[in-house]
Batch of 2 targets.
Target 1
Amino acid sequence: MAATTLTYRDALREALREALIADQRVLLMGEDVGSYGGTYAVSKGLLEEFGPNRIRDTPLSELGFVGAGIGAALGGLRPIVEVMTVNFSLLALDPIVNTAAMLRHMSGGQFSVPVVIRMATGAGRQLAAQHSNSFEGWYAHVPGLRVLAPATVEDARGMLGPALADPDPVLMFEHAQLYNLEAELPKGGFPAVDIQSASVRRTGTDVSLITYGGCLAKVLMAAEELESQGISAEVIDLRVLRPLDDATIMTSVRKCRRAVVVDEAWRSGSLAAEVMARIMEQAFFDLDAPLARVCSEEVPIPYAKHLEEAALPQTPKIVAAVLTLMGKSP
Amino acid sequence: MIEFRLPSLGADMDEGTLLTWHVKAGDTVQRGQVVAVVDTSKAAVDVEIWHDGVVGQLLIEPGTKVPVGTALATILAPGEAADPMATATAPPPPIQKPTVPTSPSPTPKLAPETAEKAITPTRRPVTPAARRRAQELGIDSDSVKGTGAQSSVTVADIEAAASTQKSGMPAIALASSTPAPSAPTSPADRAKEMRKAIAAAMGRSKREIPHYYLSETIPMALALDWLAKYNASHTIAERLLPAVLMLKAVAVALKRTPQLHGFYVDGAFQPATAIHAGVAISLRGGGLVAPAIHDVGSKPLDQLMRDLTDLVKRARAGSLRSSEMSDPTITVTNLGDQGVEAVFGVIYPPQVALVGFGSVQTRPWVQDGVLCALPLVTASLAADHRASDGHQGALFLAELRAVLQQPDTLAEAVHKTPPQGDPT
């Protein structure tokens, strides 16, 4: 099969096209997804191809259109709702958490909400505090939601299909810095990506580096750097933030006996905290060092480039954390 | 629910390695039954249980080294039902002070350079995985230098220590018939360990116990004549050794001087009720143990003879019982075989006295103003001045001499003593 080079953005668009073609019930809705082609140009060209009934521009009201998307799902459609960034999704917390996540339980299993909500997340583009948050861990707190974080072009291409097939609400977090990421993928029919389990992106024996989404590239670079210092790092891409794939995490930690969790969110009460707690519960006796994590500094993300970089997890910080765990001075 | 704890099998023991269990959960056990074998630095000891009941849960795996006082198993008293909550949340072995009469607390192991930090003692960082690996390899993680995060001891440190220990040890019988992960397996190791244990106990004794020494020459003619007559009328298997007579004589003589047998613990003397005489037995290949013959005062001579033969045999075969190791109230050492004239022993703490016998030799002796040749033995007493004075010691030796002049009464002296107390 012929291969083609795709960006993360292109991969998402291909997945959307595939879904729109495959099922007449699928529609895409959100701010600027139609005429403008999407804030990150993910839906560029789709309005022309599928028409305004299926590619719907919405008013600038997250509460309104996310709620409408949930209603559409209850009504029998398969809406894909794009929220421009996770920062604005807080306006729609109520329909997502109180309605979409809970309705199956509240209705005694009579109703499910087959909606997919896509959001951009993360920092690193000098958009300052209110546009740089990583709140996906908040959603990963909520039972009833499936939370995905594609970190590769392949996952961006292959996660939407299974997400739409899920009868319950699925949230997909796309790190905004990944849209230009390029990779070679097979052309045409693409296999669905598993949305149950984490993925081992690199095998190693000395330390498990556990991360997801926008930090994966930095972690892989850290692993390269560590390799040159004689330390073999295994890289786990969580990929599914809820429900967490404990088995893959524990297998890796039991093998390497050390773990560093890298998460762009703030450390207190973070997904990183949850991952560490699970390791303590399940693999304490396999550990050969205290657990460590590299998270964002607990400040509103700064605008200034050098300050923003200093606030976020970066490759040298990850390398330093690993060296400290190994009893070596960074 | 009763906790069955690792007893102290001697003053020099502060930890032991569980070698095997003889029981499993659900077994009915009776007081005095041997339920486990524990390796001390001296010998593998059969450990007895002190309660009737049913074994609830075995808390310690064979091969594990634990401090004295650690709960080894839970025992359900007769009629008591298993408590599922209790078993589900059975706590990890607590580190507790020994509960059997023991010593003042051991000297802290802090090195001088860390003494400043002694005010806030911190646990030495050993990672969970290293802890488990150390247990598997039988390595004492305290002796390993840590190279991990915050100088913690890591798996790599343990494995490195294990490989150097192995290469440094000559001829280890790794494939021995009784694999005991952390027990010293080779005779050389055993001897070394035992020498260390004896050094520790005797060093402590001489440091802590203000000894005083008395001796008395005792004519043995009457006793030996009696013995010769007794033995002449008995089969070889029933014959008595002079050592048995002396042992019995010590027990009888002690009746009037209770200050000489018991334990000195926590700054106070605790007299013992029954006389459990520790008999010093030298082992083939070196080393020494002093297990007890229980209740010497109440046993007839033939019984004592059988007990002594059995004890010596088992001591040398390495199958002593825990009560024999833990509860001697006085030690009797008899070096007569070696031909020394007298022995002035070192008290085995926390006991307060030791009686020594030299060899029986025919010597000039004045009796009723007449010089004659008589078999004599020098009996000595080493006693703890904190528990008794020379006066009482002298009374004891005089009594010992007197009872040895009346072998008939020795043969008949079967004293009733109260039931043996629970040493745990």
Target 2
Amino acid sequence: MRFNTAPAPHLAPTASTRRIMQWVLLAMAPGVAAQLWQFGPGVLINLALAIAIALLAESAMLRLRARHSRAGLSDWSAVLTAALLAVSLPPIAPWWITVFGTLFAVVIGKQLYGGLGYNPFNPAMVGYAVLLISFPKAMTAWLPPTDLAATQLNLLEAWNAIVHRAGPDGSSFDALAMATPLDTLKTQLGLGRTMDEIQSGALFGALAGKGWQWVNLGYLAGGLWLLRRGLIAWQIPAGFLAALGALSLGFFLLEPETYPTPLFHLLGGATMLGAFFIATDPVTASTTPKGRLIYGALIGSLVFVIRSWGGYPDGVAFAVLLLNLAAPTIDHYTRPRVYGHPGCT
Amino acid sequence: MFTLHRFHGGLHLDAHKEDSSLAPLATAPVPPRLIFPLQQRGGQNAQSVVQVGDHVRKGQVIARGDGPMNPPIHASSSGIVSAIEPRPLPHPSGLTDLAIVIDTDGEDLAPAPEERPDYGQLAPEELRRVIFEAGIVGLGGAAFSTAVKTDPGHRPIDTLILNGAECEPYITCDDSLLRNFPREVLEGARILMRVLGVERCLLGVEDDMPEAIRALRETREAGDYSNIDIVTVPALYPSGGEKQLIRILTGREVPTRGIPADAGVICQNVGTAAAVYRAVGRGEPLIERIVTVTGKGIKNPGNWLTRIGTPIADLVRYSGGYSGVAERLILGGPMMGISLPSDALPLVKAANCVLVTGRGETTGPKQALPCIRCGACAEACPINLLPQQLYWYSRADNLQRAEEYQLADCIECGCCDYVCPSHIPLVQYFRAAKSELVAKQRERTKADHARERFEARQARKEREKQERAEAAQRKKTALAKPDTSEIQDAIARAKARKRPPESAPTTDAAPDESPPAQEPAEN
Ligand code: SF4
Ligand code: SF4
């Protein structure tokens, strides 16, 4: 009998890139749910809009680059990029912000570098950083968390706010928006308030910023699930959270009047989203075990530095982008010891 | 308590062992025709010592090699040599090479067995000679000459390791051997220890072979085998890889580009040990071995005591034939085995498993996606390499960087390839890059030799020129010396004659061009 030949290994593979992307998307669910609960249905509109634009942009680019667009789209990486960007945007960010950011992320951040696997920077964070630099005002206008909001937006009202820039009952769009706790903290500290005074404000909850603490716990839950399934390396979130926790604890102990608690840092802003979903983007992160720990720790430290002394309220995007740049170097100096080669075990 | 050492990476694979291990070991009938390729191991050919038309007996030497690396081949049953002709080799390329074909007569005639009850008294060299004459090679798959491997030269050896950690899925021939012939294996271990002059033997068995472990333990208790330790190792692919097993059992590592002997150990497959016992204790050459026939593509999977030279098709026939879904024919296991184009090929000494996979059991044509640098490959690599970097450099043809990242240390175990979510055929890239590196290295050596030769010639010419000049100068001075007594002159001449010439005449002999001896690289 004749047979077709094939090279070893012969076992059918069990993992696929598409599966991984889908699982990561699924793991975002608790965080997104918390966002939905705390900040209204705008996040859903952002998600839908960003995903649609990302798929369009990806397939157009693949066609332009004469790649098989089916195969390229089927890996779900564009969807994931869009989702990561969408959940980072204010819940009623004007529609063109989402469109512009997504286009920038997919076209420039990813495809112009050669597509999946070749982009040196995290595409979602490229899109986010560009938006933050270009439209700082729109990007920091968040909705108040549910229990502080005067009116709850339903899906239609959120749609109106996003597309027509109109609040419910003809109120102005700007009247809806509010600064985030991280932002507030920064302005108030600038005004010479003490930590105690600031934290007794309405925006601050038991653990961290109101609303934000739940969102962070949601992403933490999803992240832990990813870890359990072995879909992300533990070193990056561990390094990230350990460094951020340690630095914030140190400064908090030294000067509790000017520095918020470590809990505020860990459960505030984009910390958990960043630690488990953004910094862990394999394409742009460090790949060696030791390198990942260093990479994560440096991002965590940078986040603390930017939040405490930088010009932007949150630092996750910039920290990640900066470390993307350093990842190849980190990898180079953290190569593991190969079997049979001298060195410590 | 025996401490085990972990190696990096590795995979927990579905074992699929019950398929074949549930059936009792059976003896395969003598096939109508036996085929013996003369090329036994990577490019080394034996020469036929029989002719077409000769009648051969079971166990008779039919081919001999040209050195210790190349042990003889024996007829595995009696019959008539019907052809010595090019035949396809069990190799994925479908290459052909000379093979001896024997039409069996069904008599299975053998010379009277040569009992050697006193083999315990034989000297190591004598034992090694018997092992060589019996045609024994490593039965774990690499088929390296056992006589050579048991001769570590000046390297001090303190431990013999017997490899019974059958780590590839589906394969159960060692399991079957250990269950049915535990005494042969332990006796073989004793003989090998004597050959090597070591006091310690560690026999590693994977923990998913409880019956084999029980049989070994019972035999060990019943006999005088106290310096053989039977060690259970966790079932983790590739713990049966030589380098991995050495690390698990001793915590030592084989240095890069070295051999196990550099770590003070010699590693032999359990099947090899049994063959050594049969050769030394019973005078039987290596003419049969246990082969697993399994996979969804086989009707009745099982293990067969099979004569070397049996065509795969016959063995499949004894196993009930192919089931309807047969898709791929693999010699060896699913991780490292080679896929064959045809079942008309014979089983050689190293053949441990005939795996016929059915639909869905193996990879289809893989559509590779770009590497997402997820690092799953690096986590799985038992050598602790960074396959994603190796892939990157191999693809970019940056072989120097690939070399820097220790491409040469890759054992081609396939772990990285199997776990890659982007379905990149990593091992294929590594194999290609490695052979390119080897070719480059060969070029370099050749160029080096040419340069050395050139430089030597230049130096010689230079020296000769200088000598001529000196001679001319001497002559001149001699001539210029006006007032020398003839006697003194004669004495000086005689002295000069007695003295050896200043420099021996150089010949243009090429420096030794033979490449450095290849070290065995077994798995
Ligand atoms: S497993 Fe595949 S996709 Fe992941 S890093 Fe390795 S080669 Fe790249
Ligand atoms: S095939 Fe080579 S690189 Fe891949 S896991 Fe095995 S040893 Fe490592």
